[in-house]
Structure formats: C-alpha cells, structure tokens
C-alpha cells in the first residue's frame, strides 16, 4: 500500500497534536505526516509524544494559515507538492458578550478559522483536481450546527466553514475528492483552558450588570462543569472507537442484504411482467396460420402478427434481465454476505478478546493497588502502635517486641504488595500499549479492509444493475423498431383492393323490376307477337338465363343459408370459384413438378446402381419409384378434373353475361326469320290466321323497321394480339389463333372474358383475357 502524505495544521496542542501522533505511529506505516504549527517553539510536546517516529514518519513544519506566503512555502517544501490528505485543524475561540468584542479580535478569528481554511484549499485543491483524488478533513464544531450562548462570533465562523465545505463538496465529487466535516463537542485541551482564562480576564466594563451576571455566575461556572463532566480528551477524539466500527460494519452488511433483497424483488417483478407478456402473446398469436385463411391476405393482419412477435421478443429480454440480475447480483451478493458475516464475527471476537484481556489486566492492577494501599495502611498503623508501646513505661518489653515484630511484618507485607502492584502496573502498561498500538490497530485495519471490500462489491452490484439493463436496450430497441416497421407496412388502399379481389362474385347487378299492369287485359296480335318478342331468343322463348335472373339475385343484406362446401367449389360465387380452381391447379402443378423431379432423380440413381452395383441395389428403389409414379398419376387426374371444373366455371360465367345474347341485324336470313316468326305465332294461342297475316309472311320480318336498324356496327375501342390459341367451342365465344390481330370491342368486366372482333372475317365473340395482349385506344 502506498504511503499517503498527510498535512495537519494546528499541531502544537489538542486534537491536532493527538491526531499527528496517532497517524505517525500507525503500525502499518501508511501515513507520512507533515505536522504544522505557527510557532515552532511549541513543538516540544509533539516531539516527546511522537518518539522514534520523528523524522521517519513525521516532519514538523512552520505554517501560519493567515499568511499566503507561509502556506505556499510549506506546501512547496513537500516532495512534488503532493498532499493526499489535508487536515485543517488550526483555529481559536472567542467567547463573551458581543459588545465586549473588538473588531480586530473578530477579524482575527475569521482570518484564522474561515479564511485560513480558504487559503489552504486554494493552494492544495488544484493539485488534487489534477490528480483526480484527495481527501480534505475539516475540524469544525457542533457550534457550526447550532449556536450557543456567548459564542456568537465563534459560531458564525464555524457556520461559514460548514456552508463553504458543503458547497465545495459538490464540485469536489466531480474530481474524485472527498471532503469530511468533523464536528466534535466539548474537548478538554489547552485550547479550552486558554479560552476560559482569557474570558475571565477580559475587559467587560461596557457590559450591563444583568448580562455580566449571566456571563460570570452562570455561563463560566456551568460551562466548566459541563466540560469537566462531558468533555472528551484529544486522544479519544483521535482514537478509532471499536463500538463505532462495529455498528458501522453491521450497518454495511445490513445495507448489502437490503440491496440484495431489493434486486430480488425487482427480478420477481420482471419475471411476472415477462410472464404476463408471454400470456398476452400466446392469447393473440394464432397457433397455426392457414393459407386458406382470408385474414392472412391483409397487410394490417400481418403487421399485427409482427407486433405480437416483437412483443414476444421484448418479453424474452425482460426474462434475460431477470435471470442476469438474479445470477450476477442476488446470488453473488448473498454468497459474499455470508462470507463477510463470518469474517466480521471473527474480527469482533478478536477485538473483544483483546478488550477482555486488557480489562482482566486492569482488574489485577486495581486489586494489587488496593492490596498495596491496604497493606500500607496496616503497616503504618502497626508502626505507630509499636512506637506508642515503646514509649509507654507501663508496657512490658515482650509486648514492645511483639508490636515491633508485627510492624516489621506489616511493613514487609506492604513491600511485597508494592512489588506486586509495580509488576501488575508494568504488565498493564505493556498490555495497554499492545492493545492500542498493535492489537486493535491490526483488527481495525482488517475490519477496514473487509468493509472496503464489501463496499467495492456493493459498488459493483450497483454498476451491474444498470449494465444488465443497458446490454439488452439495443435488442429492445430493435423490437420497438420492428413494431414501427410493421406499422409502416400497413397500406389501407392495398387492403381495400385485396378485400375486393377476395369477395368479387362475378354476378351481374340486378336490373330494375318491370311494372306489371293488371288493370287492362293484354291484347296480343300477331304484329305484337312479332314486335314484342321478349328479350332472349328470336323464337319467342325467354332466355333461361334471363328467366332465372331474379331468382339468382343475391341481396346485400339478405339472410344466408349455411353453405355446404363442395370439392369443385361450386358453393362459391363464379369469380371466387374460378380463382380457387386456378389456385388449386397451380398448387397441384407444383406438386406434380416436384414428383416428376423426384422420379427423374430416382431413375438416374437406379441407372447409377445398375452400372455400379457396389453403390447400391437398384431393386431397393422400386417401391419408391412406384410410389412416385402413383403420386404423379394421382396429381395428373386431379389437375384434369380441376381443369374440367374450371372450364365449366368459365362457361357458366360466360353464359351469365348479358352481352352473350345473340345480336341480330337487318341482314338476318329472311327464311330463318320467317320460321322463327311462325314458331312464335304457333306458340301464341290467341293469334288468328288471316290473309293479312299470310301476306306479311312473304316479306322480310323487319322490313318496316329497317330505319331503326340502319346503325353502323360499334367501333372498336382498341386492338389486341392473341398470345395463345383458343378453340372457342362454347356459346358466345370465338376461336382465335396464336399471333392473330383482333379488334377490342369490350374490356374485361371482372369475369376474365374480353369481347373481340376478327378483322378479316368479321366474327365477334368472347375470349379469355389472359390469352390477349391488349392495346386500348
């Protein structure tokens, strides 16, 4: 351990002298003491008490705290100006009525007690700040905490010291410098003796009688009694007290145990918090996500799942904090606490044993002293009695001799008691020196090292408490950033469009309901029959698709019956059925390709085995090849079946379109029109046959309405090119060839079909939109 330089002021007497001696005679030689005083002529007491440590562990220097030059000269004389510990003890007192104090004495008091401290710190504090360490010990007083009668000026100086040090300590902490204020009570020293001597002889002529009476007859009288009864000796102030250290070390262990319990409760809170978060995640996170679940199509649902997953990771970090706190602080501190308790118990036993030995030695000394005192009294009494008998003429010679023998015996016993007392006194002094200068310092040093070790471990516990939290903060930050990123992914437009795509039915919107007039009978003529042919086919029969139009309406808020799920998805609306079938075909195609790749791989492996039999038996692959071929055949059948269902679904969607009804114009074949008209008349029971009717049959059916059908054909809205060949076998469709250029007549309305017209032949019909590359004008 490095020797620390200690500068102590005011060492001519009192606390300064006792402290300098105590530090210089430290058994471990930890301190190099620079004892200072204003007048070196008063250093004899210090030299006498420090003994052999003088010039080895203690140097006496001149220093006047009221002079800056004296302070600077003293500090410069210390090697490298290194002062590790500054003990400011210099000062003097001033008591009495305030009106009796001169301004010169008041200024002198403040110049020493307060400004002297400021000068010392101004000189030494910068060096401590550069070294980032140091300790300043200031001897204040209880009168710096509370005023006392007739100590007005002295209390003011100590109050100034208290305020100055408390403020300076805030700055000193930044540089690793400690400032300690010592506030002793009454101390029996030369300082107090001189103070009361000066007070008794001071000029009080200007003081009123009542105040004078209180000062002389009350304050001075009772203050001396208080100091005599309660005052400490300077040695007691400087001495390390065993009971104080015992209480402090116990307090330190209690604090350590309290902190360990505090951390344990924190871990329980973290564990409970993490558990509740885990339960929350488990409650809201689906056990398994199905691809068929429509919720998985929406980005807001994926964002919610991501937030829940990030929260799960967040809960995991809280568990990490709890585990690390428990392992690195609670367990370690509890282990250290048990070790320190045992170690402290051992040191306290050693201290009490040393105290007991000293007490036993003192009791022996007291017993021998009392015996010596008793024997001396008895011997003196025996001698007086012998002298008395010797002078008495009536006493026989034998009585005189007997009295003299008794006196000699008592004197001899007194001498033996004296020798015994001297022996016990020498033994006690030796034991006392051993106790105060060897045994107790060693015990105190051990307890100090133990307490400092406990403090370091507690300090480490405080640091780990925050470091564990800091270690997981980046991960927690990533969890929070993940939640934020999940929020940024949400696109309300995309989700709205996804909802439309998922629930697009392909049904035509219902038209207006026709008015049915029951108030007039319906008079149908042949012309009415021919001109009022219902929408649908020209033979007068309604298109079954139109007849079933109202029946197939799906009202927006109508009650829905429970849907029976079928394999071909026929329970779904046309558009949704088509999408499901296409999705299923794609999935089966991927599975088929996987099985085909596996078949090829097995065949290659079989060829390798056949060429190099040592690598394996080709027959062992036959079961797997057979299984793969079976899977291929099964998947092909499923694909064919789904394609057939898809073709049927597309045919039904095409048949539901109103634009697929055959369009007729004035170029219609008259014969076919005639046949259709006759058929219509045949189906009308109210129609009568007449010559007028027969004449009408010899003319084109739409002759008188030619002007209404003289419109030109609809103009195309764009062009397109067929990317694939299409047979067009169903009603309303046309066949196209790959690469054929077509006119675009009508865009896809959401059912997957587009109406086109050939450029050369003039044919018009529907083809799949996915087969075309469009160019809309």
TrEMBL record:
UniProt KW keywords: Cell membrane, Coiled coil, Cytoplasm, Cytoskeleton, Endocytosis, Lipid-binding, Lysosome, Membrane, Oxidoreductase, SH3 domain
GO cellular component: cell cortex; cytoskeleton; lysosome; plasma membrane
Gene: TRIP10
Domain REM-1: 571-648
InterPro entries on file: AH/BAR_dom_sf, F_BAR_dom, FCH_dom, HR1_CIP4_FNBP1L, HR1_rho-bd, HR1_TOCA, NAD(P)-bd_dom_sf, Sc_DH/Rdtase_CS
Residues covered by the F-BAR domain: 225-495
Protein name (database record): Thyroid hormone receptor interactor 10
Coiled-coil ranges (or none): 323-406, 578-605
One GO MF term attached to the UniProt entry: lipid binding
Ranges annotated as biased composition (Polar residues): 520-532, 687-697
GO annotation (BP), single: endocytosis
């Amino acid at each position: 351990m490095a020797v620390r330089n200690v500068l102590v002021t005011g060492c001519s007497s009192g606390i300064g002298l006792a402290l300098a001696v105590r530090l210089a005679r430290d058994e471990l030689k930890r301190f190099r003491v620079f004892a200072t005083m204003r007048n070196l002529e008063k250093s004899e007491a210090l030299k006498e008490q420090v003994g052999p440590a003088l010039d080895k562990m203690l140097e006496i220097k001149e220093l006047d705290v009221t002079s800056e030059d004296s302070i600077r000269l003293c500090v410069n004389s210390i090697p490298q100006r290194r002062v590790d510990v500054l003990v400011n003890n210099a000062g003097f007192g001033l008591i009495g009525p305030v009106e009796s104090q001169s301004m010169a004495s008041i200024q002198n008091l403040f110049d020493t007690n307060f400004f002297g401290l400021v000068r010392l710190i101004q000189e030494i504090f910068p060096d401590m700040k550069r070294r980032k360490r140091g300790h300043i010990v200031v001897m204040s007083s209880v009168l710096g905490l509370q005023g006392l009668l007739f100590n007005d000026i002295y209390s003011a100086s100590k109050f100034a010291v208290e305020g100055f040090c408390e403020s300076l300590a805030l700055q000193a902490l930044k540089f690793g410098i400690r400032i300690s204020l010592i506030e002793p009570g009454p101390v029996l020293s030369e300082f107090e003796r001189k103070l009361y001597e000066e007070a008794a002889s001071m000029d009080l002529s200007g003081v009123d009688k009542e105040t004078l009476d209180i000062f002389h007859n009350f304050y001075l009288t009772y203050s001396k009694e208080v100091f005599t009864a309660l005052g400490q000796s300077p040695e007691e102030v400087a001495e390390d007290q065993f009971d104080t250290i015992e209480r402090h070390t116990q307090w330190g262990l209690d604090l350590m145990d309290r902190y360990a319990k505090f951390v344990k409760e924190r871990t329980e809170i973290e564990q409970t918090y993490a558990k509740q978060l885990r339960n929350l995640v488990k409650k809201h996170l689906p056990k398994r996500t199905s691809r068929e679940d429509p919720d998985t199509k929406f980005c807001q649902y994926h964002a919610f799942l991501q937030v829940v997953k990030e929260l799960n990771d967040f809960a995991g970090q809280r568990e990490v904090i709890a585990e690390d706190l428990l392992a690195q602080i609670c367990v370690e501190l509890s282990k250290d606490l048990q070790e320190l308790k045992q170690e402290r118990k051992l040191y306290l036993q050693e201290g009490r044993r040393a105290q007991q030995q000293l007490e036993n030695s003192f009791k022996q000394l007291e017993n021998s002293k009392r015996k010596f005192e008793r024997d001396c009294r008895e011997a003196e009494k025996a001698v007086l009695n012998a002298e008395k008998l010797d002078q008495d003429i009536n006493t026989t010679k034998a009585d005189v001799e007997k009295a003299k023998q008794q006196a000699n015996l008592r004197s001899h016993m007194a001498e033996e008691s004296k020798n015994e007392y001297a022996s016990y006194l020498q033994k006690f002094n030796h034991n006392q020196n051993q106790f105060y200068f060897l045994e107790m310092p060693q015990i105190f040093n051990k307890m100090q090292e133990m307490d400092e070790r406990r403090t370091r471990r507690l300090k480490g516990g405080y640091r780990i408490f925050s470091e564990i939290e800091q270690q997981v903060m980046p991960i927690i930050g990533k969890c929070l950033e993940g939640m934020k990123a999940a929020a940024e992914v949400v696109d309300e437009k995309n989700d709205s469009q996804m909802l439309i795509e998922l629930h697009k039915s392909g049904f035509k919107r219902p038209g207006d309901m026709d008015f049915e007039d029951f108030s007039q009978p319906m008079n149908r003529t042949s012309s009415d029959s021919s001109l009022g042919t219902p929408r649908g086919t020209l033979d007068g029969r309604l298109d079954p698709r139109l007849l079933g139009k109202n029946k197939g309406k799906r009202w927006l808020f109508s009650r829905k019956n429970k849907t029976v799920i079928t394999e071909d998805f026929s329970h779904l609306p046309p558009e949704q059925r088509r999408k499901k079938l296409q999705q299923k075909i794609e999935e089966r195609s991927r599975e088929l390709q996987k099985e085909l790749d596996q078949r090829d791989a097995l065949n290659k492996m079989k060829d390798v085995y056949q060429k190099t039999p040592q690598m394996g038996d080709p027959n062992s692959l036959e079961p797997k090849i057979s299984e793969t071929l079976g899977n291929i055949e099964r998947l092909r059948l499923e694909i064919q079946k789904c394609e057939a269902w898809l073709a049927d679904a597309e045919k039904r969607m095409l048949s539901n379109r109103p634009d697929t009804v055959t369009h007729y114009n004035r170029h219609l074949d008259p014969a076919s029109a005639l046949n259709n008209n006759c058929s219509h008349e045949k189906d009308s029971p109210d129609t009568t046959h007449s010559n007028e009717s027969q004449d009408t049959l010899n003319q084109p059916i739409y002759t008188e309405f030619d002007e209404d059908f003289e419109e030109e054909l609809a103009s195309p809205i764009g062009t397109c090119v067929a990317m694939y060949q299409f047979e067009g076998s169903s009603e309303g469709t046309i066949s196209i060839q790959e690469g054929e250029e077509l006119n675009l007549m009508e865009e896809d309305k959401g059912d997957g079909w587009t109406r086109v017209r050939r450029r050369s032949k003039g044919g018009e019909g529907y083809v799949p939109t996915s087969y075309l590359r469009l160019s809309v004008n």
